[in-house]
């Protein structure tokens, strides 16, 4: 009987080793080790064997059972691995094909620059206010000390809309709107927005954007203006940026200044070829000054004893410098090849 | 204004070897920006004057000559020349070996047909003196030879282009600039030493008939003048400043203008009638023929000069002289006018008659009231120097306001000197401040605590302590002010306390949301042409009064036409076979006349009658994705646009927006567009551009557009100001049921889902269309809509039987309300 068991066992072992599929293995398991399998059949005859021999045969049978089960498990694992490998080969894809990519959007470079500038001044305590783009000439000019028939009106080419109405030529009327609405101080405001001038060439656009800043308090000094603008220049153009103020004239401030920022391109060695500063080492960025006393008189009694400073930054100018944009018209053509660049 | 470096050096003593570039920097840092420095004679460095000793024909070439020329010393030079207009004894311009002419030509030693040429004889065009010329330049016989040509021509000056700001009318002259430099460098000012005019009875008296609009009028009658060309130094001086030389008397007047900034005029006295010349208001309809030949009609607002003829004015006061009384070659008696006119009157006249002359530009900024008499004296002196003659009589009429013995007193400013330090934040002692002001011509008197500062008569722009502080600051240099940081004396406002800041914050989030959805932010001009708006059936548009071009006719009433234009331009500028995708948005105001307002005009200080409405608009076209394979790159359709809007609304927490079919609006496709409703209010429109517009403008694809009323939607978005609260979700399992509902095709799917939600209350929580089908076996005119209904009770597990019961209610409602049946 032992011989019979060993014969069944070794045959089965051979079959397992030669099996090519998991189904074959299952078939072998059922036909040999199953309830009606051949090994079970043999063991069923164990009852007719003497009690003395029974344990011995039983041990042999169990030994073969274990061997077969191990062989089956091992072979199954092998076959599974083979099957997986071949499946993986057929599942292979070309990873260099284009991805299924959604469009990525961008903010306009004017918006990006405006946000940057607002963020800088916000750190000093400025808040945003706004005013209309179609403005009365009373606020655009007269109330901020640009009298009718004064030569200062020539400084800006104005789009006229009707009697006493213009497209605002600067964000400065918002200063007066804010002062009159507040009726008193302290005031620390920023006004971003579109402004208009009858002008159209490589550096002038009939519509462009400014940010106006206004700080009014007791004892505000011109040195505070300079410190504020220096902080702005460093934040926007890099920590080593310097500013230079040149006396200038804007009717709504006194003293007034044009403010230059050191050219960030040729900081160490100004070059005549520099496309940004043309070799001067300076970029003209903004106009500023101490709020003219006539504006306080115009704004009302709540401004008695106030001093303050104001400044106006051209946003396109800053954007063009920061991004090396050669022509202001590019900003208004809405060409996706332009818009998409500033992600 | 153009300023001559040579002339400035005659008017002020500068430190030795001061370079023009340093002076330019000094002026710029004092507020007189030098925009350009032009060196005359650039390219003429190696061009010298020479004399032709003999001219011989070239042995090998009929058309060439060989000239022997001399520079006055050294060996004569042999020069080959192609011109024919010279002869021996002529003075000519020789470009020497090594010269590089203004036109870029380099002069080298060359052999021309066997003869060595040691330079080139030049024409005026080669020297950059004229744009065209014939033959070589023959210089006057008196020309000294062997000197640089630039020197011989007087072309060796350096010209500054100074940007004089409107407040500094006193610097529109060489003396004005020299005064600034004298203050800057502490140098002596060398003003022309002109004797004062001796006033007496003149055969021609001046009369003030316009009150304070013409407060002083000086005149001088000179006889025996000889009109002729000015001497070379005058011609050179004027022409290097861009002023054409006319004759010696007119040139004298122009020299005074450039030197002192005082406009003057010379009349031919024999052409004036009677014995007075008066300033008066023009009469309406009066005619005046000007020096430039044009006849203008006056409207009565102008100031004019008239003689006793009573017929017509002889000059447009402050702007331009009249024709018929000007100085001509035969003139021998002249009357010089030097007057002061109201700046505003002159400015308006110059604008009205479009003659913004050098004189008008100076009058409109205001003149030194004391300088008028000085101008008259200086002009008299120069005329006699240049044209001879003698003074018959000088005369002057001054209104009391201009009479130094009466009301003309210098302006005084009282100020506590500590103000300067407090206001500027600049460490400066009173003595430094006094010194700075003194150098600029101010006189300081008074006590330690209270100064009285006298303003020089030519500084009409200085009237307040702040003005004085600027004078001090620009004297010591703005860079002397050490930066400080302003002190925050009150706490900042909470952001949502400031409606503008809050509104801007929502705008920013909205822009960010569209960027996340793959859109580019566009920025267009606020104006457009009526013709372009008409393409879209839009008649509205607030007109611009003075557009530069048709593109600026009206302010935009909608952002859509501009976005469409941007799409078109992108398509037109694209070379590839597939049109680029358009995904753009813009958040900007549109402009409208307020209801009940007929036209744009100032209704109050703050009100223009124009309403600015905030719009959020977008344009979508091209493929759904930016990359992928063919099936991924299907063109977008309405569902993409709607999906963008829905995602946008959900990102902005804007709820309750319904899409309703839109019909019959010029701009929109009647079957593929929708109005966006919030309750009963329309808050936007979206859909496809009308196909007839698409074809009219030659669109390269379907354009999907939306324009949102952002003012209204923004209010709904404002809830975002507050932080959102956490909400728990259901923990009991839902039951789902799918239905195929067969309805007439014209029934909107939303009716199916709304009915289901209502009939299924409260267990039917979500009803969603997940497919539609038309075509066999569905009968024509019918649509099969696949709907999923999700039932849920947040507090317990539902029984299948409950879902069945509710489903039955829903199906029966569909049947009753919509005539729908279920497809199995």
Strand arrangement across the biggest beta sheet of chain A: 1-5-6-10-9-8-7
Main beta sheet of chain A, described?
7 strands, mixed
SS elements, strand count of chain B? 39
Q: Oligomer, anyone?
A: heterodimer
Distance from N terminus to C terminus of chain B (CA atoms, Å) equals 91 Å
Principal-axis shape of chain A: rod-shaped
Q: What is the radius of gyration of chain B computed over CA atoms, rounded to a whole number of angstroms?
A: 42 Å
Parts with pLDDT < 50 across at least 5 consecutive residues of chain A: none
Rg of chain A: 44 Å
Shape of chain B: elongated
User: Which structural class do you get from the secondary structure elements of chain B?
Assistant: alpha+beta
Largest sheet of chain B: 7 strands, mixed
Name the chain pair whose interface involves the most residues: A-B, 91 and 101 residues
Number of helices of chain B: 20
Keywords:
heterodimer, A: alpha+beta, 3-stranded antiparallel sheet, B: 824 residues, alpha+beta, 6-stranded antiparallel sheet, 20 helices, 26% helix
Describe the protein's topology.
The complex is a heterodimer of chains A (343) and B (824).
Chain A: H1 2-18, H2 22-33, H3 38-44, H4 54-90, H5 109-122, E1 127-128, E2 134-136, H6 137-140, E3 160-162, E4 165-167, H7 172-182, E5 187-196, E6 207-217, H8 222-237, E7 243-248, E8 253-262, E9 282-291, H9 293-299, E10 307-314, H10 315-323, H11 336-339
Parallel strand pairs in A: 1-5
Antiparallel strand pairs in A: 2-4, 3-4, 5-6, 6-10, 7-8, 8-9, 9-10
Helix pairs in contact in A: 1-2, 1-4, 2-4, 5-8, 5-10
Chain B: E1 2-4, H1 5-11, H2 20-29, E2 33-39, E3 47-57, E4 65-70, E5 77-81, E6 91-95, E7 110-112, E8 115-117, E9 120-121, E10 138-139, H3 149-153, E11 158-163, H4 174-185, E12 205-208, E13 216-223, H5 232-240, H6 248-260, E14 265-268, E15 276-281, E16 287-289, E17 295-297, E18 303-306, E19 313-316, E20 320-321, E21 334-340, H7 343-352, H8 358-363, H9 371-387, E22 390-398, E23 412-415, H10 418-424, H11 430-439, E24 443-446, E25 451-454, H12 465-476, H13 499-516, E26 520-521, E27 527-528, H14 530-535, E28 542-543, E29 554-555, H15 560-572, E30 582-593, E31 610-621, H16 638-651, E32 657-661, E33 668-678, E34 681-689, H17 691-696, E35 704-709, H18 710-717, E36 735-744, H19 749-759, E37 764-773, E38 782-791, H20 800-818, E39 821-822
């Amino acid at each position: 009987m032992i011989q019979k068991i060993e014969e069944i066992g070794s045959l089965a072992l051979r079959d397992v080793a030669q099996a090519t599929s998991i189904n074959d293995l299952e078939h072998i398991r059922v036909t040999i080790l199953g309830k009606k399998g051949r090994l079970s059949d043999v063991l069923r005859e164990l009852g007719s064997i003497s009690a003395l021999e029974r344990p011995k045969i039983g041990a042999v049978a169990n030994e073969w059972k274990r061997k077969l089960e191990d062989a089956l498990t091992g072979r199954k694992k092998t076959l599974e691995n083979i099957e997986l490998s071949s499946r993986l080969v057929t599942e292979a894809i070309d990873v260099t094909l284009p991805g299924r990519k959604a469009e990525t959007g961008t903010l306009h470079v004017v918006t990006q620059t405006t946000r940057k500038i607002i963020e800088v001044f916000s750190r000093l305590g400025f808040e945003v206010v706004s005013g209309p783009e179609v403005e009365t000439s009373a606020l655009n000019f007269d109330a901020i000390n640009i009298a009718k028939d004064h030569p200062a009106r020539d400084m800006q080419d104005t789009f006229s809309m009707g009697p006493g109405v213009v497209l605002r030529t600067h964000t400065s009327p918002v200063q007066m709107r804010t002062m009159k609405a507040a009726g008193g101080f302290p005031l620390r405001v920023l006004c971003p927005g579109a402004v208009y001038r009858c002008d159209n060439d490589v550096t002038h656009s009939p519509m462009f954007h400014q940010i106006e800043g206004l700080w009014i308090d007791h004892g505000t000094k011109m040195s505070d203006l300079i410190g504020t603008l220096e902080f702005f220049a460093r934040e926007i153009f890099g920590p080593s940026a310097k500013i230079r103020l040149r006396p200038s004239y804007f009717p709504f401030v006194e003293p007034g200044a044009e403010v230059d920022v050191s050219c960030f391109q040729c900081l160490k060695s100004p070059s005549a070829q520099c496309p940004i500063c043309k070799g001067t080492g300076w970029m003209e960025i903004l106009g500023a000054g101490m709020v003219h006393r006539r504006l306080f008189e115009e704004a009302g009694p709540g401004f008695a004893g106030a001093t303050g400073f104001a400044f106006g930054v051209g946003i396109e100018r800053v954007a063009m410098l920061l991004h090396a944009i050669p022509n202001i018209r590019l900003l208004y053509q809405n060409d996706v090849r332009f818009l998409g660049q500033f992600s | 204004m153009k300023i001559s470096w040579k002339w400035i050096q005659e008017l002020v003593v500068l430190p030795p070897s001061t370079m023009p570039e340093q002076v330019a920097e000094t002026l710029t840092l004092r507020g007189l920006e030098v925009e350009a420095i032009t060196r005359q004679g650039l390219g003429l460095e190696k061009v010298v004057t020479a004399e032709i000793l003999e001219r011989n024909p070239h042995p090998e070439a009929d058309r060439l000559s060989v000239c022997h020329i001399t520079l006055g010393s050294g060996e004569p030079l042999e020069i080959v020349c192609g011109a024919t207009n010279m002869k021996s004894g002529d003075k000519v311009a020789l470009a020497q070996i090594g010269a590089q002419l203004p036109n870029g030509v380099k002069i080298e030693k060359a052999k021309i047909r066997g003869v060595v040429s040691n330079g080139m004889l030049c024409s005026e065009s080669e020297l950059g003196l004229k744009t065209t010329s014939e033959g070589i330049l023959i210089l006057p016989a008196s020309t000294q030879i062997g000197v640089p040509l630039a020197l011989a021509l007087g072309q060796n000056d350096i010209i500054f282009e100074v940007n004089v700001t409107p407040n500094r009318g006193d610097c529109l002259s060489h003396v004005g600039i020299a005064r600034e430099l004298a203050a800057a460098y502490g140098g002596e000012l060398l003003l022309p030493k002109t004797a004062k005019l001796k006033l007496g009875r003149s055969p021609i008296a001046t009369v003030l008939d316009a009150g304070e609009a013409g407060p002083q009028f000086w005149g001088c009658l000179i006889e025996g003048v000889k009109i002729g060309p000015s001497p070379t130094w005058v011609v050179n001086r004027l022409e290097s400043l861009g002023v054409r030389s006319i004759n010696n008397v007119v040139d004298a007047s122009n020299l005074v203008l450039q030197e002192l900034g005082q406009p003057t005029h010379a009349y031919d006295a024999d052409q004036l009638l009677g014995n007075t010349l008066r300033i008066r208001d023009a009469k309406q309809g009066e005619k005046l023929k000007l020096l430039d030949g044009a006849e203008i009609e006056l409207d009565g607002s102008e100031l004019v000069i008239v003689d006793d003829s009573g017929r017509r004015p002889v000059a447009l006061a402050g702007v331009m002289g009249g024709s018929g009384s000007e100085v001509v070659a035969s003139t021998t008696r002249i009357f010089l006018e030097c007057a002061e006119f109201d700046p505003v009157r002159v400015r308006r006249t110059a604008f009205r008659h479009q003659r913004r002359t050098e004189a008008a530009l100076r009058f409109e900024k205001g003149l030194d009231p004391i300088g008028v008499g000085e101008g008259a004296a200086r002009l008299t002196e120069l005329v006699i120097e240049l044209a001879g003659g003698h003074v018959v009589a000088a005369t002057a009429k001054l209104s009391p306001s201009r009479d130094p013995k009466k009301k003309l007193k210098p302006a005084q400013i009282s100020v506590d000197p500590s103000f300067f330090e407090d206001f500027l934040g600049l460490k400066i002692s009173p003595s430094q401040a006094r010194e700075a002001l003194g150098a600029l011509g101010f006189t300081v008197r008074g006590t330690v605590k209270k100064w009285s500062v006298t303003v020089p008569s030519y500084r009409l722009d200085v009237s307040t302590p702040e003005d004085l502080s600027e004078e001090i600051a620009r004297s010591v240099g703005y860079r002397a002010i050490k930066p400080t940081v302003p002190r925050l004396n009150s706490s900042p406002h909470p952001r949502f306390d400031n409606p503008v800041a809050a509104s801007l914050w929502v705008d920013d989030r909205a822009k960010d949301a569209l960027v996340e959805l793959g859109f580019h932010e566009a920025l267009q001009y606020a104006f457009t042409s009526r013709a372009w708006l008409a393409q879209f059936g839009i008649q509205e548009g607030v007109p611009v009064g003075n557009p530069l071009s048709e593109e600026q006719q009206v302010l935009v009433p909608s952002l859509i036409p501009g976005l469409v234009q941007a799409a078109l331009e992108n398509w037109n500028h694209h070379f590839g076979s597939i049109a680029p995708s358009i995904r753009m948005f813009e958040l900007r105001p549109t402009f409208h006349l307020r209801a009940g307002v007929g036209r744009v005009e100032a209704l109050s200080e703050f009100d223009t009658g124009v309403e600015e409405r905030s719009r959020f608009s977008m344009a979508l076209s091209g493929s759904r994705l930016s990359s992928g394979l063919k099936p991924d790159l299907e063109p977008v359709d309405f569902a993409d646009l709607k999906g963008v809007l829905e995602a946008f609304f959900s990102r902005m927490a804007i709820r309750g927006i319904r899409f309703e079919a839109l019909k019959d609006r010029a701009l929109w496709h009647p079957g593929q567009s929708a109005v966006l409703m919030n309750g009963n209010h329309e808050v936007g429109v979206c859909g496809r551009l009308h196909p007839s517009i698409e074809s009219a403008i030659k669109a390269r694809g379907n354009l999907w557009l939306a324009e949102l009323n952002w003012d209204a939607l923004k209010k709904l978005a404002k809830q975002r100001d507050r932080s959102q609260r956490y909400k728990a979700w259901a923990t009991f399992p839902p039951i789902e049921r799918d239905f195929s509902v067969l309805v007439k095709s014209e029934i909107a799917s939303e009716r199916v889902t709304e009915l289901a939600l209502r009939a299924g209350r409260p267990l039917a929580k979500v009803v969603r269309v997940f497919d539609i089908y038309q075509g066999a076996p569905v009968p024509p005119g019918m649509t099969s809509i696949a709907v999923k209904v999700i039932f849920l009770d947040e507090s317990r597990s539902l029984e299948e039987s409950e879902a069945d019961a509710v489903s039955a209610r829903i199906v029966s409602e569909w049947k009753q309300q919509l005539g729908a049946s279920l497809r199995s």
